Amino acid sequence: MLTGKQKRYLRKEAHHLNPIFQVGKMGVNENMIEQINEALEKRELIKVSILQNNMDDKTDVADQLTQGTNAELVQVIGNIIVLYKESKENKQLQLP
Q: CRM domain spans which residues (predicted)?
Protein backbone atom coordinates (compact mmCIF):
# COMPACT_ATOMS: atom_id res chain seq x y z
CA MET A 1 0.00 0.00 0.00
CA LEU A 2 1.33 3.43 -0.92
CA THR A 3 1.51 6.29 1.56
CA GLY A 4 0.24 9.78 0.73
CA LYS A 5 3.80 11.02 0.35
CA GLN A 6 4.62 8.20 -2.10
CA LYS A 7 1.48 8.88 -4.13
CA ARG A 8 2.36 12.58 -4.36
CA TYR A 9 5.83 11.67 -5.58
CA LEU A 10 4.43 9.23 -8.18
CA ARG A 11 1.85 11.77 -9.39
CA LYS A 12 4.69 14.24 -9.93
CA GLU A 13 6.73 11.63 -11.82
CA ALA A 14 3.71 10.64 -13.96
CA HIS A 15 2.75 14.20 -14.86
CA HIS A 16 4.82 14.34 -18.07
CA LEU A 17 3.96 10.79 -19.21
CA ASN A 18 1.57 10.12 -22.07
CA PRO A 19 -0.99 7.31 -21.81
CA ILE A 20 0.35 4.17 -23.51
CA PHE A 21 -2.86 2.11 -23.29
CA GLN A 22 -6.47 2.90 -24.07
CA VAL A 23 -9.54 1.18 -22.69
CA GLY A 24 -12.23 1.30 -25.36
CA LYS A 25 -15.77 0.09 -25.88
CA MET A 26 -14.86 -3.55 -25.17
CA GLY A 27 -13.53 -2.73 -21.70
CA VAL A 28 -10.69 -4.53 -19.93
CA ASN A 29 -9.68 -7.98 -21.19
CA GLU A 30 -7.02 -10.59 -20.38
CA ASN A 31 -4.78 -9.59 -23.28
CA MET A 32 -4.79 -5.95 -22.17
CA ILE A 33 -3.96 -6.91 -18.58
CA GLU A 34 -1.05 -9.04 -19.82
CA GLN A 35 0.34 -6.19 -21.93
CA ILE A 36 -0.08 -3.65 -19.11
CA ASN A 37 1.72 -6.03 -16.76
CA GLU A 38 4.67 -6.23 -19.18
CA ALA A 39 4.74 -2.44 -19.55
CA LEU A 40 4.69 -2.02 -15.76
CA GLU A 41 7.65 -4.39 -15.45
CA LYS A 42 9.60 -2.24 -17.93
CA ARG A 43 8.51 1.23 -16.78
CA GLU A 44 7.02 0.87 -13.25
CA LEU A 45 4.75 3.89 -13.79
CA ILE A 46 2.24 4.16 -16.65
CA LYS A 47 -0.88 6.04 -17.66
CA VAL A 48 -3.96 4.38 -19.16
CA SER A 49 -6.65 6.46 -20.82
CA ILE A 50 -10.33 5.54 -20.91
CA LEU A 51 -11.93 6.38 -24.25
CA GLN A 52 -15.27 8.15 -24.38
CA ASN A 53 -16.97 5.15 -25.99
CA ASN A 54 -16.31 3.09 -22.84
CA MET A 55 -19.49 2.96 -20.78
CA ASP A 56 -17.94 1.40 -17.66
CA ASP A 57 -17.38 3.44 -14.53
CA LYS A 58 -13.81 4.81 -14.31
CA THR A 59 -13.29 3.42 -10.83
CA ASP A 60 -14.46 -0.04 -11.99
CA VAL A 61 -11.96 0.03 -14.85
CA ALA A 62 -9.22 1.13 -12.43
CA ASP A 63 -10.16 -1.70 -10.02
CA GLN A 64 -10.07 -4.28 -12.82
CA LEU A 65 -6.63 -3.10 -13.91
CA THR A 66 -5.15 -2.98 -10.41
CA GLN A 67 -6.52 -6.42 -9.49
CA GLY A 68 -5.48 -7.97 -12.80
CA THR A 69 -1.93 -6.62 -12.67
CA ASN A 70 -1.43 -6.43 -8.86
CA ALA A 71 -0.41 -2.80 -9.37
CA GLU A 72 -1.06 0.15 -7.11
CA LEU A 73 -3.57 2.78 -8.18
CA VAL A 74 -1.82 6.14 -7.92
CA GLN A 75 -4.66 8.30 -9.22
CA VAL A 76 -7.71 8.56 -11.45
CA ILE A 77 -7.97 12.03 -12.92
CA GLY A 78 -10.47 12.75 -15.67
CA ASN A 79 -10.27 9.77 -18.01
CA ILE A 80 -6.68 8.92 -17.10
CA ILE A 81 -5.61 6.17 -14.70
CA VAL A 82 -2.07 6.20 -13.27
CA LEU A 83 -0.70 2.80 -12.21
CA TYR A 84 2.50 1.89 -10.35
CA LYS A 85 4.08 -1.49 -9.82
CA GLU A 86 7.59 -2.00 -8.52
CA SER A 87 9.71 -3.70 -11.16
CA LYS A 88 11.66 -6.83 -10.29
CA GLU A 89 14.43 -6.32 -12.85
CA ASN A 90 14.19 -2.71 -14.10
CA LYS A 91 13.98 -0.75 -10.86
CA GLN A 92 14.00 2.96 -11.76
CA LEU A 93 11.91 4.85 -9.21
CA GLN A 94 13.06 5.31 -5.64
CA LEU A 95 10.00 5.91 -3.44
CA PRO A 96 10.37 8.38 -0.56
A: 1-96
